[in-house]
Write a structure and sequence with these properties.
single chain, mainly alpha, A middle domain of Talin 1, 3-stranded antiparallel beta sheet, two-stranded antiparallel sheet, 70% helix, 5% strand, transport, NCX_ion-bd_dom_sf, CaCA_antiporter, membrane
Length: 581
């Protein structure tokens, strides 16, 4: 397999002292790539520096992974969605491929970059760690927080878990010899094709009656959009639940009922009445753009309306509990606003890197709308997008590219004369290309950050992937899926967990592995078949089998006992991995 020499730096077991490690890094490793490790071992080799540098590196890693999630859901997915809608592709492409693939796309790109660098142990570790977190921590937290939720359609859950169990057994067999061959990569890719074919047949009724998707809409306008979930959605739900919403709503609806997928909405007609005065138009547009959350309450539909309307004298709460509750709400709102500010800062940077069509702006914030309608941003994209593409693919000197762009800059004046459909397609394609470029470069920096953390902590790549990479990468999934489960519908959080494993195994390892092997002209991807790999694979198979047995026995209820067992199981597996290391 093609190894990137700059990213390889394995400390020998005979080197223990900090000064010896410093000398080894400077003489055997790429100092520019392992700059953080070199600074730690050569200048600040003490406990305080270890804590400080590790904290900064982990914080930076979490922010980078958060940026990846926002980039994929807010830019890549929306541009892909515009193209699939414009060309009239099947709704199943969106429901079965595009939304699940978008949620897992950062992992798939990261796996490709890491496999190409020769760090297969890091990929296997991250894969095992992520799957363990999904089936123990996330499902465990959902089971604890929702308390005795009964699964309404257990057959669907059985089918999803059975597919995952079959794929895990196949994957464990593939890993059993310490290498992954081209034939095995092709087999995994074909299993994913078979899975999509199965969904296209089975899920016709499932889409119609059972499955739900997040839909953003407004009470007076029928402009809706299906989208993958990310941490921004979760923060918006939490924030609006505490502060109250006035205009819009985030609801769960049947996917098949979404008019966003119909040809009528492809042109993004204005939701505003044509005869409205200007002031009313602006206020209505502002209302439309303010999207808030309305909780899905099962009890609200069953309660009599007369009882809800009747005035009832509520007893005055005790001052101390009320004060504590108010303080908790304030802290929750403050933390939510901090996270939202961080997300907005990331989004503010990305908006200057990746174009997308105005048609999608109705679901965005006010500040983003103002930037998009500014004429200067069009000129900025005219220069920025070609320079970014040149940086990634052609690498011509900037001194030659800039004069050409200046010569052709008057062509910006004819943009208004281009038809709406052509403009939409061109903008979406450029948005997809720039998104992929940014994602691939971010993935390279993620790998560099992980490699430096591994050298500083002096741990194996497998444990680095299982703990550091998997945990930091799963923060977004934990917040998003648990919020969806507790604030909207538990089955939404569970379904979000079930879509990821097949993709990151079959495409993240299978398809990526095949591409890497073809490019490197090798026959197999080799990795260290350590006891930790065997332990984690067996633990995953046992966990899913346990869930499949426990739920029917417990009458398809997710309860606190299940959640505590799953989380404790994750802690036990983690401690055993640390002991084996």
């Amino acid at each position: 397999m093609s190894l990137d020499p700059s990213s390889q730096c394995v400390l020998p077991h005979s080197v223990f002292a900090g000064k010896d490690i410093c000398n080894y890094i400077e003489s055997h490793c790429d100092v520019s790539y392992f700059k953080i490790s070199q600074i730690y071992y050569c200048r600040y080799h003490n406990l305080v520096s270890l804590i400080f540098i590790s904290s900064i590196a982990l914080l930076a890693l979490c922010l980078i992974l958060l940026a990846l999630s926002i980039l994929v859901s807010n830019y890549l997915f929306r541009n892909l969605n515009e193209l699939t809608t414009k060309f009239g592709l099947s709704n199943q492409i969106l429901s079965f491929i595009l939304i699940p693939l978008t949620n897992s796309f950062p992992d798939i790109i990261n796996y490709f970059v890491v496999l190409r660098s020769g760090s297969s142990n890091l990929v296997i570790g991250q894969l095992m760690g992520s799957l363990l977190i999904i089936f123990t921590v996330i499902i465990g937290l959902i089971s604890i927080l929702i308390e005795n939720f009964t699964i309404e359609y257990p057959k669907l859950l059985i089918i999803d878990l059975s597919w995952i169990l079959i794929v895990l057994i196949l994957f464990s067999y593939i890993l059993s010899d310490g290498k992954i061959t081209s034939l095995e990569c092709i087999t995994m890719s074909m299993v994913y094709v078979a899975y999509i074919a199965f969904l296209s047949i089975f899920d016709k009724e499932r889409l119609k009656d059972y499955d739900e998707e997040l839909v953003i809409g407004h009470d007076e306008h029928q402009h809706l959009i299906e989208q993958p979930y990310n941490i921004e959605d979760a923060l918006s739900i939490i924030s609006n639940e505490e502060t109250g919403g006035e205009f819009g709503s985030i609801e769960t609806r049947s996917r098949s009922a979404s008019p966003r997928l119909s040809p009528v909405s492809t042109r993004c007609p204005s939701p505003l009445p044509a005869t409205s005065p200007k002031g009313d138009r602006d206020s209505e547009r502002e209302s439309y753009l303010s999207i808030h959350y309305v909780a899905k309450m099962k009890s609200s539909s069953s309660s009599p309306p007369t009882a809800a309307a009747a005035p009832v004298a509520a007893p005055a709460p005790a001052p101390a509990p009320a004060s504590r509750h108010l303080q908790q709400i304030r802290i929750k709102i403050m933390l939510t606003h901090i996270f939202q500010t961080v997300c907005n800062c990331i989004d503010f940077i990305l908006i200057f890197l990746i174009p997308f069509h105005k048609c999608i702006e109705n679901e965005d914030s006010h500040w983003k709308l103002k930037i998009r309608y500014n004429r200067i941003i069009r000129a900025w994209y005219f220069f920025e997008v070609p320079l970014l593409i040149n940086y990634q693919f052609f690498k011509f000197p900037v001194v030659y590219v800039m004069p050409l762009l200046l010569i052709f800059s008057p062509t910006m004046l004819i943009v208004k004369s281009i038809g709406h459909d052509i403009k939409l397609v061109i903008t979406s394609i450029l948005g997809i290309i720039t998104s992929l470029i940014v994602i691939s470069n971010i993935s390279v920096y993620i790998l560099q950050m992980l490699k430096n953390i591994g050298i500083i902590w002096n741990i194996s790549e497998y444990l680095l992937g299982m703990l550091v990479f998997a945990v930091s990468n799963s923060i977004n999934d934990v917040i998003t899926n648990v919020t969806l489960a507790t604030k909207i519908n538990p089955i939404l959080g569970i379904n979000s967990c079930l879509g990821t494993p097949l993709l990151i195994i079959l495409l993240g390892v299978g398809f990526n592995g095949f591409v890497v092997l073809q490019n490197s002209k090798k026959h197999s991807i080799k990795f260290d078949l350590k006891p930790s790999v065997i332990l984690d694979t067996a633990a995953l198979i046992f966990t899913i089998s346990f869930i499949l047995i426990y739920l029917p026995w417990n009458k398809w209820r997710l309860d606190r006992k299940l959640g505590i067992c799953l989380i404790c199981w994750y802690l036990v597996i983690t401690f055993i991995n640390l002991y084996l290391e």
